[in-house]
Amino acid sequence: MKKYNFNAGPSILPREVIEQTAAACLDFENSGLSLMTISHRAKNFQPVVDEAEVLFKELLDIPEGYKVLFLGGGASLEFCMIPYNYLEKKAAYLNTGVWATKAMKEAKLFGEVVEVASSADKNFTYIPKNFEIPTDADYLHITSNNTIYGTELRKDIDSPVPLIADMSSDIFSRPIDVSKYALIYGGAQKNLAMAGVTFVIVKEDTLGKVSRQIPTMLDYRTHVKKGSMFNTPPVVPIYSALLNLRYIKAQGGVKAMEKLAEERAKIVYGEIDRNKLFVGTAEEDSRSLMNITFVLKPEYQDLQDEFMAFATSKGMVGVKGHRDVGGFRASCYNAMSIEGCEALVACMKEFESNH
Amino acid sequence: MKKYNFNAGPSILPREVIEQTAAACLDFENSGLSLMTISHRAKNFQPVVDEAEVLFKELLDIPEGYKVLFLGGGASLEFCMIPYNYLEKKAAYLNTGVWATKAMKEAKLFGEVVEVASSADKNFTYIPKNFEIPTDADYLHITSNNTIYGTELRKDIDSPVPLIADMSSDIFSRPIDVSKYALIYGGAQKNLAMAGVTFVIVKEDTLGKVSRQIPTMLDYRTHVKKGSMFNTPPVVPIYSALLNLRYIKAQGGVKAMEKLAEERAKIVYGEIDRNKLFVGTAEEDSRSLMNITFVLKPEYQDLQDEFMAFATSKGMVGVKGHRDVGGFRASCYNAMSIEGCEALVACMKEFESNH
Question: Is the ipTM of this complex over 0.85?
Answer without folding.
Answer: yes
